[in-house]
Amino acid sequence: MIAFRLIRVILHLITALWTCAVIFPFTDEAGRNWRIRHWSRQLLALFHVKVELIQRGSPQEGQRALIVANHISWLDIFVIDSFYPSHFVAKSDIRDWPILGWLCAAAGTVFIARGRLRDVRRIFQDLVSSMQKGQRVAFFPEGTTATQGTLLPFHANLFEAAIDAKLPVQPYALRYVDEQGRFSQTVDFVGETTFVQSMMMILKGGKVTAQVIVLPTIGTDGAHRRDLALASHDAIADALGIVKAEVPQPQQASA
Predict the structure, then answer these.
(1) Which tens digit of pLDDT belongs to each residue from 100-138?
(2) Would you say the C-alpha torsion 93, 95, 99, 100 has a positive or negative sign?
(3) If we measure between CA atoms, which residue out of 195, 185, 206, 193 comes closest to residue 47?
(4) Domains in the chain and their CATH numbers?
(5) Structure pTM?
(6) In this structure, are strands 208-214 and 169-177 parallel, antiparallel, or unpaired?
(7) What residues does 214 pair with on adjacent strands?
């Protein structure tokens, strides 16, 4: 059974590679977004992951925003893409993942090398330009994945892009639960776990519901990037039920 599901995943990835190579160069942004949304939903279905949107706030009609979310798994990108295809900022390690790394790049993911200030400056300008053109942009301000039930400090640097683009910040709180409503441990992607190991754990696990809590937007007019990082951090912590005293606060060095 697992072998059959794995073969279906591989075939789905091959189909995506063909789509990116043959169709993407000849279609517009709307066409690419439709295909990314459809492909992401199919991928999640193969892993028995269902997406549930919980609306606690949403942009007004036509309003754009910089999306920020907590980071749990490599699935996060495809969960968000399944309903709101976006250009993601992700750590450069993802680029080296088998097949999926190339697909993320083809879908518009921007990769950043940890600790390289030149990369941050270049990507910052690209983000501002993309948002001003109306493109959807998202990133994970923790900078890495965290075990469910915890929330790492938010790095503030890229929040500056929303200020410069004159757009609000839209926090999303992500969590994965099993059929009993408990945190699903099969999706945690931390420590020395490899991408292949993580993929196999999810395939062997039971059904999972990815809950996306859409929170009210945070205005950026007159705000400082550190204030935006803290406000987003607190909003996501509240939505996930993480007690503030247990949440590590961002350090000054991350600003």
Answers:
(1) 676 777 767 777 766 565 666 777 787 888 888 888 889
(2) positive
(3) 206
(4) 2-248 (3.40.1130)
(5) 0.85
(6) antiparallel
(7) 55, 172
